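Notebook, p. 212. Picked up where the previous page left off. The plan for this session was modest: take the two constructs that came back from the sequencing core last week, fold each one, and keep the raw output in the notebook itself so nobody has to go hunting through shared drives later. Recording the first one now, exactly as returned: residue sequence, then the structure token string.
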Amino acid sequence: MQVFKACFKVIRKNLPSMMIYFMVFLFLMLLLTLFYKAPADDLFHQVRPRIAVYNEDAGDPFSDGLQAWLGSAAQVIAVPDEQEKIQDALFYRDISYILRIPAGFGDKVLSGQIDSLYLDRTLIPDSWEGITMDLLVERYVNLSALFAATLKDVAVSELNAAVQESLAQEASIQLQVTETRSFNRTTYYFIYMAYAMMAVMILGITSVLLVFNQPDLRSRNLAAPVNLIRFNGQLVLGLLLFAVAAWLVMFLVSLAMDGYQLQAPKLLLFGANALTFTLACLSIAFLISQFIRSRAVQQSIANVMALGTSFISGVFVPQEMLGDTVQTLASFTPTYWYILAINEIDTLTDFGSLSLQPTIRYMLIQLGFAVALLAVAMAVIRQKRQTRS
């Protein structure tokens, strides 16, 4: 077991620098998890448009009542009645709708002259605020004309009050939610673990293999009385123990992130899924290490691999928000299947064999990545040895 012992000697020598990387990424993972906010329960709330109103019929009870009602239905912003300032307010989106009430407007509404009415309005093209305000003003004016024609000799103040009372009646909105997911920090901790584990594995494994892949040391190892299979087997075993140790530390930290509140089967599934992903990351790092010759390249590849796979696979952006093309590309990485398994485990309420089939399938796919990448790495090593010989 000379290679195995040598592997741990290299790990112990590089342990301080690897611990720095490990603690940095662990801190980032904890930071992302702790500051994550659960989605709000109120999925719908009314938004009032920002408008400006210029009442050239000021003093008329009806027009004044309309202006007062607009103040409750929308956010009325005071903008000086100057063309340049109005254009600036529209350009910078301080307001999205301008309504100018012409002189004599109130008398025409109360006398039933709806066809000759004209309201000067300016709005941002194709904006929902403009459509909303047009509908609100149209409803107010039409209802006022109807009340004025129906209720003879009614006071304007009473008419305004009746119209506003009618418009205040709203239908209740009830969203049908078919699935309710409770918020638990442990779930998001395991999601963000994909980024940290990928980075830690690449940095840690390549730090060790950079030593073994030095030309002089490699030539000496090739001349040693240890065949290639035994040499690589002992090396992989040492790296495997390093990977399991990293996984175990991260898993134990998850217990402090509300993990103890989860059902035991769910927590164990999260841990098993993380372990399979760790093995996939180990194979990726082992393969990458065959092409790395400097620590500068090592850090660049670690950042690119960890961030790239995380962004396209659903770590920082939920998978349901990713496009079909991105998800197809991400499916060629183990990170994508790792996140799929987490989402599946998070929704489990029954732990029977039938319910666990999707999760087990996703974990087996990750193991398939691990085996395939390890086989490719071994083939690369064999090819390099034959080329040198």
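Okay, moving on. Second construct, recorded in the same format:
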Amino acid sequence: MQSALTNIVYLLAAVLFILGLKGLSSPRTAVRGNRMGAFAMLLAIVATLIDQNIVSYEIIVAGLIVGSAIGLIMALKVEMTGMPQMVALLNGFGGGASLLVAGAALIEAAGGAGAATQAAGIQFAVAISAAGVIGAVTFFGSMIAFGKLQGILPGRPIMFPGQKALNGLLILATIVMTVLLVLDPTNTMYFWIIVGLATLLGITSVIPIGGADMPVVITLLNSYSGLAACATGFVLNNYGLIIAGSLVGASGMI
């Protein structure tokens, strides 16, 4: 369970997230708003690491160093004209991270370990499914968007006969598998089938969109990455993830 102090820190981080978003509304305050959002995320991460004894700090620090180095290189190397591609890539990483965390929580619950077992139930299974679907769509859809903007894939719409029917079948199959996972959360195979279906859906949903419309697609995928994080927050019962994910999801939609 999260301590009262941790929840207070999460609340403070949420306020800073909101103020940061407000700061982005003007070029004069955008830099300050960006820094406030970054500081809010730092607070949330530190509070989570102190409150949750999950893995050794050596592994976490190693991940932070590697991730920060990659992010710094990307930020310094990428030209401003390449920012849409970079945003698409980072959106995808966010969705992929939510997907992996949800999968790990499901495996832990299925194995009867830790707090995840206590959380197992309808809410847990629905949140797991949502994180898997949205996370996979976000990751692979963002990779397609990145490829189109970077010139790796053709910028023109890629169409084929029966594309809409295929998307409809993928959505229907995903719903069926989600119901099966809710009925039996211990069967992890359902989750990975959901991820596979959502992967195809993410690809087939973005390839028919032309490169000129990619900024709109990236904005939508940014919203999806927030919703995936929010769903993962319900999986982990983490208020910080729920609040931050909801803010990103709502702002992206708007």
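Notes on construct two before I forget. The chain has ten helices and no strands.
Flagging for discussion at group meeting.
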